[in-house]
Amino acid sequence: MFYETKPFEAFELGDKATFSKTIGEGDLLLFAALSGDNYPVHVDEEYAKTTRFGGRIAHGLLTASLLSATNGMLLQKPGGISLAQTLRFLRPVYPGDTITACSEVIEIIPDKRRMRFRTSCTNQRGELVVDGEALEQKDR
């Protein structure tokens, strides 16, 4: 990923960044190992078949983690940091789904050098699976 240089003063409402990834078997297992979240609906196919989902689903925070990429892509260089992120998990994400994360500037707060982003993840059918907002601080 390439991060351009963009000063705070150059941001405009509607600026956005997107990133797509197909969620694979390895992603579920690696996220379970990294996070310690081995809940059966994520890692045990036989158990997951008995749930309302009919099979394994990705961890919600695995899907939402793609927003970290788009928030960073949008912030650019120099300097910036996430202050807050809200999330609503709307639909399950299954292994093999291709998720597109998007972050879009919806508010600019000049006196604090902050921006509010609308953040979302959609699947390959265009269905919204995660929705939220982020508050970001730009150093310069």
> Which geometry do the CA atoms define?
elongated
User: Which structural class fits the helix and strand makeup?
Assistant: alpha+beta
State the distance separating the first and last CA atoms. 21 Å
Order of helices and strands: EHHHHEEEE
Topology:
Elements: E1 16-22, H1 25-35, H2 40-43, H3 45-49, H4 60-75, E2 81-89, E3 98-109, E4 114-122, E5 128-137
Descriptive tags:
5 strands; alpha+beta; 140 residues; five-stranded antiparallel β-sheet
Quick rundown:
The protein is 26% helix and 34% strand.
Describe this structure in words.
By secondary structure, the chain is of the alpha+beta class. It is built from 4 helices and 5 strands. It has a domain at 8-23 and 60-137: Hotdog Thioesterase (Thiol Ester Dehydrase, Chain A). Strands 1-3-4-5-2 form a 5-stranded antiparallel sheet. A hairpin with a 5-residue loop joins strand 4 (114-122) and strand 5 (128-137). The chain is elongated and about 55 Å long.
